[in-house]
């Protein structure tokens, strides 16, 4: 999902994990029942700079709709511009659910690190130990790749979302033809194994959705349960994230949600817009298939950053970063989390996510005292530019600093 300008391969890869992976058996959480769950009341004070960014995203950058929620203290601030549904002109609401793309990776990594904290695996374990014979062929060797290298993208494993056959399923008419297909994790890994590795394990960095498909498979092998079950019992249920769930084979978004609009990853600015709200996301799996809300994401990242989900040793591992290459400017990558330095010098942590029809970005201060989530329900706009502007406005003290970033951000790079 990223690293390059808006070329089709980058876009697909950037699809934040978008191109997903097979979902295992899912135990439905309270959120999956479809009953509307209202979010917290939104504060009407402050964050004028954030609201201006939202307004510009619609009026100047063509976003169909955008929202942002700032959580700091007891009362969150919620802002929106544009529409949740362009046909009815319904406004976006705090309780609207959306597909979060690669932010799923943080959930997957958190579960794996919890298992490590319980002594059920080690981050230095090889992939071969837990998935014998799975990472093999064309130079790939699971006995030389560690779990840690999967989580921080230093494994060198080829990203299945860059495979030409997979790309054909993601772009243009191919997506419309295959949007309801199911894919299993093993199939996705097999696509990656058709290609040579990007580099020898531990020698460089490259974002690969295959890494997190493998991580999800390891969670299931170690725990004896589906990843969906582990996410629910370890994270969403304890934190009360009633709007957050793994959709499994379901193509719909349960409960209230915005429509998701896409130009099907085509680079032609004149490409028609399609409603892609319903889609089977098993091709994203542990790399990018989850559904949530801005409030739930803020609560999750606040708990994670604040040290409430991991033991100290695993917390330190998660937030130990490696440099990223040709990716989002001023970022590092930990174990399922991104660090980003804003122009005012503030360091924030979280993840981004892109999937057909949805672009998300959640960041927070290192102690979790303040978190910000934003989402655009269209996939053709400048995600990095808009999202960084939101974070600048929320975390930096002056509008001038926020404006300074816009001139340095590259064209659309997906994650």
Automatic annotation (TrEMBL):
Which UniProt keywords are present, listed alphabetically?
A: Hydrolase, Signal
Q: Where is the signal peptide?
A: 1-21
Presence of keyword Hydrolase: yes
Identify the residues that the record assigns to the Beta-lactamase-related domain, covering every copy.
52-363
The enzyme class is hydrolase
Name the domain of life: Bacteria
Q: What is its EC number?
A: 3.-.-.-
Q: Pfam families annotated for this entry?
A: Beta-lactamase (PF00144)
Gene Ontology terms, MF aspect: hydrolase activity
Protein name (database record): Serine hydrolase domain-containing protein
């Amino acid at each position: 999902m990223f690293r390059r300008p808006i070329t089709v391969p980058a876009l697909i890869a950037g699809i934040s994990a978008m191109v997903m992976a097979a979902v295992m058996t899912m135990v439905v959480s309270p959120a999956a029942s479809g009953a509307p769950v209202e979010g917290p009341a939104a504060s009407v004070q402050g964050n004028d700079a954030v609201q201006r960014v939202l307004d510009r995203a619609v009026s100047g950058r063509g976003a169909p709709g955008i929202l942002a929620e700032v959580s700091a203290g007891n009362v969150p601030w919620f802002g929106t511009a544009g529409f949740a549904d362009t046909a009815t002109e319904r406004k976006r609401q705090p309780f609207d659910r959306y597909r979060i793309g690669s932010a799923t990776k943080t959930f997957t990594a958190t579960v794996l690190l919890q298992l490590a904290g319980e002594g059920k695996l080690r981050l230095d374990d090889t992939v071969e130990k837990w998935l014998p014979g799975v990472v093999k062929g064309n130079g790939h060797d699971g006995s030389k790749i560690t779990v840690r290298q999967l989580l921080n993208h230093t494994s060198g494993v080829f990203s299945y979302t860059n495979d030409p056959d997979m790309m054909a399923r993601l772009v243009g008419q191919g997506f419309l033809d295959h949007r309801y297909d199911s894919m299993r994790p093993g199939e996705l890994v097999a696509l990656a194994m058709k290609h040579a590795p990007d580099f020898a394990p531990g020698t460089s960095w490259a974002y690969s959705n295959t890494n997190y498909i493998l991580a999800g498979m390891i969670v299931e092998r170690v725990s004896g349960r589906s990843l969906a079950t582990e996410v629910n019992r370890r994270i969403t249920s304890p934190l009360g994230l009633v709007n957050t769930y793994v959709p499994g084979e379901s193509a719909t978004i349960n409960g209230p949600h915005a429509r998701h609009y896409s130009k099907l990853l085509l680079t032609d600015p004149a490409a028609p817009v399609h409603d892609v709200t319903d889609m089977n996301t098993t091709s994203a799996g542990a790399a990018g298939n989850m559904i949530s809300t801005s409030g739930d994401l803020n609560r999750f990242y606040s708990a994670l950053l604040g040290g409430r989900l991991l033991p100290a040793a695993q917390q330190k591992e998660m937030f130990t970063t490696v440099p990223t290459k040709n990716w989002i400017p001023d970022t590092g990558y930990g174990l399922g989390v991104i660090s980003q330095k804003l122009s005012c010098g503030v360091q924030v942590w979280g993840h981004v996510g892109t999937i057909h029809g949805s672009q998300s970005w959640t960041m927070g201060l290192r102690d979790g005292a303040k978190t910000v989530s934003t989402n655009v329900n269209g996939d053709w706009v400048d995600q990095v530019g808009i999202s960084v502007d939101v974070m600048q406005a929320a975390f930096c003290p002056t509008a001038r600093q926020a404006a300074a970033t816009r001139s340095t951000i590259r064209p659309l790079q997906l994650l």
